[in-house]
Amino acid sequence: MDERRIGLIGAMPVEVAPFLERMRLRREERIGPFRFWLGEGAGVPVAVGCCGVGKVNAALGAQAMIQGFCPTAILHAGVGGGLQEGLNICDAVVAKDCVQYDVDTTALGDPLGMISTVERVDLPCDGRIAEALLDAAGESMPRGRKAVLGRIATGDRFLTSAAEKQRIVRDFGACLCDQESGAIAQACYVGGVPCGVVRAVSDASDGAHQEEFKQYSGQAASVAADVIWKFLEKFGKRFA
Description:
- With 240 residues, this protein is of the alpha/beta class.
- The protein is 38% helix and 29% strand.
- The model has no long low-confidence stretch (mean pLDDT 94).
């Protein structure tokens, strides 16, 4: 590798676009189906990747980034569904850990959410990165919006049922749901790469909010990207 770099991953183009608009691009590379953009973000060497929606895509994209560029850390930014009252549109959750709510081998005697091979339910994020992301959020969040430290629950569904969301809160104590964070956290955990996740709320906790997602996903993605960018400005050289 020619230099140490931080990896930035989003699942959808709307989540990656804010990075590509700001970074100084040096080159583009492709690993399998995944495109990566290499350059500088806030003066820090970065590799930006768009992994696609869903857990398998996210894990494969994160693994391709790890193997292709040996990042010193991976930061994942995007949008998600709020699970708890008090989290409003464009508030953010910085992950202390992630779970995969749709993994269920309880019939074999496992706890709900137990992930084989790693043999644990919780997939920890790096504590120092989480602390720095919260600090960055304090400076970058829009007026009236807040960031909290909490658990993110990942599964291969766009949740539209308030009852399902309440069940995830009851079973896992999660603050926000999405389709990628838990898979990226697992790839980083297995690969020994420090991981940080920030997701901004694009749709509320009380039921079917596809229209909210369509209306606010771009705005929420920008909020999450702003947190990452402020992290790079303040702390990037420490973690690169």
